[in-house]
Write a structure and sequence with these properties.
Radius of gyration: 18 Å
Helix content: over 70%
Number of strands: 0
Number of helices: 8
Amino acid sequence: MLSFYTFFITSFIITLSGAMMPGPLLTVTIANSAKKGFWEGPLLVLGHGILELVLVIAIVLGMSSLFKSNTFLICVSVLGGGMLIYMGYDMLKNAKNLSLNPQKINTKKSVLDKSTIVTGAIVSAANPYWTLWWATIGLGYLLSATKFGILGVVTFFVGHILADLLWYAFVAFGISKGKKLMKDSLYQMIIKICGAILIIFGAYFLYGLQKFL
């Protein structure tokens, strides 16, 4: 049983260290939590977790070779980088129409109006570094976990998702509590900054294509 505890703890620590680094999912968590409240964090992680569960199942069933393919990683970088740039542009374009006041009606839709769970999955899939993480660290760790059977895989996955959940819930809680002191002008500025960050991430991922060529 010590091996399972070790897998759980190390999986938790490795994932937490990665989750705490700035990235697209963290950016969207900040933007959504400021508008809709605490539950945006856990719901985004739910979408993220569903996507990762599907990925883990696919890897266990024998699709690990796909994530080592340069062609696949290039496609992910192009599509993911493009999606992040689009989402960032959409946030910049619609920031002026957003409000934290429920009495104000926003007639224009933005990425913040999409299903939070779906958004969590889309943002994760659009992040090429997420794919690269699973193609390297995640894949190696998961294959090691399979040596202990299904319980090893479950232990790894639970530790992995729990770290994401705790961190993003913590961020969402802090942002949602702070919105009571936030004016619409400040909120809109935060959305613009988040949008710009997503564009930068997208451009950086597209720039990184050169290492696969």
